Amino acid sequence: WTSSIEHIRATPGFEGRSWPRAMTLEENLEDLRMHAAHFAAREGFTYTVLEPVTDEVIGCVYIYPDEDPAFDAHVRSWVRADRAHLDELLAETVARWLAEVWLFGRVRYRS
Q1: What is the DSSP string of 26-41?
Q2: Cα 93–98–100 angle (5° rounding)?
Q3: pLDDT tens, 47-99?
């Protein structure tokens, strides 16, 4: 993600946010620990998107409760700038996955 900060900030759902930003290794580790704790407590779910052949990290998906009670979940996703052509495919795939597997009725995605 560090090579794709501008691209991620331009991705729907990330505009105007403070992340992504440059982080030290320690800050990044703490961020990963936070996501793992949220996952374990079932408070939020962060998934790494991997390139299927190499298992290289190419993006991420975040599923968290929405502050707005009109929505069941707030979802954001991104891919690296060098995989920008996959932005829409990932969004479509995640939206379908949320509808078919997670069964959320009201999802705010990419906003």
Answers
A1: HHHHHHHHHHHHHHHT
A2: 90
A3: 999 999 999 999 999 999 999 999 999 999 999 999 999 999 999 999 999 98
